[in-house]
Here is the input.
Amino acid sequence: MLKLTRPHGIVVAIDGPSGAGKSTVARLLADRLSYIQIDTGAMYRAAAFLLAEGGIELSDLAAVAAFCGDLEISFELQDGKKLVIANNKNVTDLIRTPEMSLLTSRISALKPVRSALMKAQQRMGDQGGVVLEGRDIGTVVFPDAEVKFFLSASVEERARRRYEELLAKGEAVTLEETISDVAERDRQDTERAIAPLRQADDAVLIDSSLLGIEEVVHNMFSVCQMKLSERVSQQ
Ligand code: DC
Here is the structure.
């Protein structure tokens, strides 16, 4: 008899490098499952924004720990748009600038930041019924997640998508620069000492360079359904 420790459903972890399409597939999968989507990258971005706004010295780890211990980050839906609220401030658009991406990459390597956000993510997902996307969800935050995916794509393909997004925003970049930025973020994410980006041993690997979004979501949904029916038959 399986104990129902997660009354609202299973925990689905989607990890992978920047630009693999995690946010889009996590949102579509969460909608299909009627689960809550938790964008943990947005949480790191919100922490970076507030640390900068608060003028916290990043080398003062005690101050960073105290600040992060009091952080309150939540997601709210307003007119169909998902808002990121941090310490009662709407930071949704403020956290998506190139400066914030760089700062987030730095602060996400700090232990006090990771431990505060990990605890917050575990509280949010504890009851189940969630799709969490990030870098360390299946390895560190929810190593016991019922379903784990590692969504990847070649550096060239991820850079090409990012390049098209930047061009559409009117930014003057070259494809070569974008490839080298994506490769640099991969290096930072995979080489950091704490909770580096890594595929969990029991994660299902999906390469989004070879599949369309709908196909990726369809495959993920089938894996989740299988796990959910196993869960029902074990009760
Ligand atoms: O997914 P994203 O690009 O919004 O993530 C922003 C940064 O946060 C990125 O540098 C990696 C980091 N991050 C992390 O270290 N751990 C997570 N679980 C999610 C994001």
Remarks:
- The first helix runs from residue 22 to 33.
- The chain has one domain: 11-230.
- Residues 11-230 form a domain with the Rossmann fold fold (CATH 3.40.50.300).
- Residues 18, 40-41, 44-45, 104-105, 108, 134-136, 189 surround 2'-deoxycytidine-5'-monophosphate (CB under 6 Å).
